[in-house]
Structure formats: structure tokens, C-alpha cells
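Pilot study result, target chain (430 residues):
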Amino acid sequence: MTDIATRVYNHTWKIDPIVRSVLDTDFYKLLMAQTIFRRHRHAKVTFGIINRSQNVPLARLIDEGALREQLDHIRSLSLSRGESTWLRGNMFYGKRQMFSPDFIHWLENFRFPPYHLERRGDQFELTFEGPWIETTMWEIPALAVIMELHSRAVTKDMGKFELQVLYARAMTRVWEKIRRLKALKGLTIADFGTRRRHGFLWQDWCVQAMIEGLGPSFSGTSNCLIALRREVEAIGTNAHELPMVYSALARDDRSLAEAPYRVLADWQDDYEGNLRVILPDTYGTSGFLERAPDWMTHWTGVRVDSGDPIAGGEIVIDWWKRRGQDPMRKLAIFSDGLDVELIEKIHKHFSGRIRLGFGWGTLLTNDFRGFAPDGGLDPFSIVCKVIAANDRPAVKLSDNPEKAVGPADEIERYRRIFGVGEQARQPVLV
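Predicted structure:
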């Protein structure tokens, strides 16, 4: 097993580059990229880093030269022959050849496009502009670089023994969480922690701990590279990015109202089975489900990803019942800000009423709370979101207005078109 403390103490970026492979990304990114490749590869889309935790002065903590060095390294990466073989021949969600030959051929020749980076006060402005099929690939590695450079900045002056103690405490914390989760009957849980991980080696350790500690209750990891290396399932479906871009491309209010459903119609053409999981909260879950066409009720499940998870789960169950579906045959995946206490609460509330799944993210792969002075290693909330598509602003509303993204006037327009009423604000921690 890797001695993480020693590697952290001795590392240079050439030995331990933060992003090691094109596959050091989340599985949903490749699934979405294939849909983009087939339908909208030439749309011009801009992504940008948004640090929701403005109290974390990233530009004061992270050296700009080191950040450029890591981003430039990512631009040198290409898919290896072994990685291509894995994508071509491996079984994902019970299906071989999930990815078409033409998409794999594109991915084999893909190189990350240029980026724009400049310092703005205590924060960095980091954006990616170009064809959607290219800029989408930056989201996960860009976040991983910033998060790990932040971790390295905080730990750079720690000695060998201090680092050994730090990681021993963190390992003990993860293992105690796993022991509690093991007591939950019928648990199904996956690692969703790539985007805001403490570091690659740490995420890999967490996955190995879950493999040993949870056995069959551990369903896999969202990280493709770790899934390949540890021979576990690659897990993921789709994200808010798709409806945000489809909506930004809409030319009028009517087309905008229909855009989130066009996304799922395209997804249904591309994928089947357990990949047909609805993410309904981009513009408000309740309104989205009320207007949803009947064919969507036959999908496998729904991901509950913002707002109060208990209330969100109840909304979904009620929708299934009113549409003549048996919730016991449906899957609800919870993935927003989860930690062991919330997982236990959700499991207790919904167990025996629906099929449950959990995507455990930041507080699995980056829970060093209280282990550094002044909370220096505490996780914080940072995202890489669509800013514009074909020069039109992109918007996300969410079930939690604290997560809304976009210009104020466009947010109000979207709220009107999608019939979003009053929403309860919830703290965004991770």
C-alpha cells in the first residue's frame, strides 16, 4: 500500500503529477462527452471555475506558476493503448461497447485545448472556451488540480512525522465512517469524490478502504482511472451541464421550456437500463417532474442532488405514485453533501420504500476537518460550471438558490419560465 505521507513529503510534480491520465476523470464526463460528440460537438461553450467559498483565498495560497505547470501537463496527456482497450472492451452497466468506435477514435486523438488564467484579487479566473466536446473535458481535472494544489500548499511545511500523524488520523476517520456504514442493511454506495478530493493518492486509498470495508455494498467509483486500476465498476450517469447548455442554445422561451426534456430524449436514444437516471433539479425538481412526459416515468430512477434530501425524495416518490409507478421498483440516488450521519438518516427514512443508492463525494475523499491550523485543510465548495453557450449566458437554478449560477436577469427569466416559486436556502458546505 502506498505510503501517502512519505510521497507527500518527497513529492515533486514530475513524480506525482496531479492528473495522471485522460481517464483521471468521472465516468459521467465520458458518457456525456459521447452524447455531445454525436449532437453538439461544434457548439461553442465556455466553462469557468467558481469558488463559492470566497473566504478561501486560492490565489494567495496557490502559486500561479505551479498551477500553470499542472495545467500545461494536462495538455500533454493522451489516452494510452491500454486505456483505450479498457474503454472498448470493458463491460459498463452490463453492456459491452458502451462507447462507439468513432467516439473512441476521437478520444484517442483528443488533447486538452488552451485555457485562460489570470489572478483577480485573492482568486483565480480560470476559463476554458471552445468547442463543447473539448472544453467539457476540462471540468474534472481542473478542479482536481486546484484542490490538490491547495492541499499541498497547506501541508508543504509539515515534517515527516507530522504528515504521518495527519494521514493516520484521516485514515482512522474514514475507517470509522465505513464501519458505521457497514451496519446499514442493503446499503449501496459509490465513491463520487474526484472533483474535490484532497489528492489522487488519497482518493485511491479511500476506494481501497471501501472495497475492503464494505464488500458488495460498495458499488464502484466515479473515477475511471481508479476503476480501471482497482478493477471495480465505473459509476455515473449525467450532470447539470447538459440541460444548462441545451437551455442556453434555445432561441426562445418555448424552446427553453422544452430543453431539459430534449436532453433526456437524446440520452434515452444513447443509453439504456441503469444509465436512465433523471437529474431533475437544474431548474427546480417539482416543476420539472410536473411537466415531465409520461415516457420519463419508465426510467430506472432519479438522482436527488440539491435541497433537503428527505423532502426531495418524498417529492420523487409522490410523483412516481401519481404517475402509476411502483416506487419499490425505482432507484433514488442521493449525492449532495453526504456524510455518514446524513446517509444514515436518509437510509432510515426511505429503507423499504424505494431502492436506495448513495454517491459519497467530498466528505469521503477530503475530510481533513480540524487537522490543520485555522481549518486550513477543511473542504470548501468550488465548481467548474458552464458560463455560456454560443455566446448566450448559461443558467442553473437548483433546488437550493444558494447554488444558482448565471446573470441575475437571466436567473429571473428562467425562474419565470420554469415556474420556480419560493425556495428554502440551505448552506453550501461542499
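One observation from the pilot: The first strand starts at residue 44 and ends at 51. A full batch analysis is planned for the follow-on phase.
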